[in-house]
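Possible regression after last week's pipeline update?

I re-ran a chain I had predicted before the update to compare outputs. Posting the input and the new output here so someone can diff against the archived version. Not blocking, just want to make sure nothing changed silently.
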Amino acid sequence: MIQQEGPGWRLARDPARKAFPVLIGGEGWAIELTQDEWQCLQSLVVELTDQHQQLVDQLLAEESVCLEMERQPWWACLDGDRHSWSLQVILQGDGEKARGAEGCWSVPAAQAMATAMRTTWDFDQ
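New output (post-update):
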């Protein structure tokens, strides 16, 4: 089992739990994810943070940026400036038995959670 957490964020992975092996959480919320939901969310957040990193040198100190991306079943938004940002995610339930959820990580929990996601993404690749 892998468990990482800090102020305002939490990530736990337990491959022994077949149906929902991943738990993500923030301030006052948490959701268990399937492996497919987790892998999709990871790639989405990695891509969003990569896009932000590419824009950092183009942004003035007082400029803000809002990056949104959708990759079924997720929608995500990175909102902030060149140094700090928040991250909002929505799991879009589709169909009769599909789940839906919404969560967000504020500054600096968003950066810590994204770093944890990237670390597990890089490790899994």
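Follow-up from reviewer: compared with the archived run. The mean pLDDT is 93. Marking as no regression found.
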